[in-house]
Amino acid sequence: MTMTGGTEQEGAPSGGAPGGGRWWWARRRSLALDASLAVVSALECAAEGVSFARGSGIPLALGVAFGLLVGATLLVRRRWPIAVVLIALAVTPAQMGLVLGVVSLYTLAASDVPRRIISALATMTAAGTLIVAFVQMHHDVVRHGSSEAAKWAAVAITVLVAVGLTAPPVLLGLYVGARRRLVETLRERADGLERELSLLAEKAGERAERARIEERTRIAREMHDVVAHRVSLMVVHASALRSVVREDPERAVGSAELLGDMGRQALNELRQMLGVLRTESGAAVSQRPVEPVVRPVAAVEADGDGPCLAQLGVLVEQSRAAGMAVSLSEEGDRRPLSRPVEQTAYRVVQEALTNVHKHAPGASTLVRVAYRAQEIAVLVENGPPDGQPSARLPSGGNGLVGMKERVSALGGGFVAGPRPSGGFRVSAVIPARL
Q: Does the keyword Heme apply (predicted)?
């Protein structure tokens, strides 16, 4: 609880406190301590009230009651420390409240009261104690007729008493208050760090989950690009082989050999992909769930193992062998590009041809590659199907999505859609330099 006048925050709101406290006490032991100090102070002031009553001529019972009331104010020292110090200062001329003055000064110094108020009240208490002690000492010296040396000794003792009753509780209170504030600051800082660590852990978990999702998506895209085209051509050739095996055995033999070559190529690319789906230590990717350690196929292709634009002629010839009327056109001067650019352009053409085999069998197709100063443009467009029976190849609808993701990852643009005159067009523009 914040005490009146900016005093120390030791309690909780009235009506209850953490740890079973009451009113402005945070704990029951704090209440017990203040109650004990109040009892001791009240008894002391009551005893000193007897002397005060005799010296001032008031009834003895009134002096004792006054002392009990003054001493009991120590019970509210945490709530109103300034008021308690002022009460102790007020009863100083009556020569009562030794415990009250010392404890109230300590409580004031340990509170959050501004330092200038603490200094002012401590100075006033020291001055009041000094004056009262000096008057009492002087009265005793004069009454007993002591020497000059005794008078100076009395002055020295008076100063020591005033300083001894004021400085130690104030200094101790300042130390305890500073230490308490330091501990509170460190605790708040530790709580803040704990919250930050919790947030960082949550964000790290989210990043790891996103990384796993992205890795699975990338693996699925690579598997689709690597395998789908070869398998699609194999299915087309197998369908054609069944119809020509009796009419043209030589052509059937050529188709069978081509099927074998495509199967070996598909297995080769699949083996390369499965090889990169392992960690450097040989453990499976699934054994490292937090940090993705898969080396993507694109990285392997970047090392020189993947396809490039120089192989587009072979890709087109394979589609022609499967019965597609496809032509290849290149514009500009062919020049070596970075591996990711060449592989992405190749995969766009490959996937577009695969889609023609699936959805427009027998359609005439044009593949155009334009080498420009700052970019490379790829266009694959086909006309409507010519009525040939479909090979009934399955389609998951991921080919166009994968192409767009590949091109967008390199900062390029990708457009795909039907042509006004029929058929389909796939277009991609990729920066020549990354």
A: no
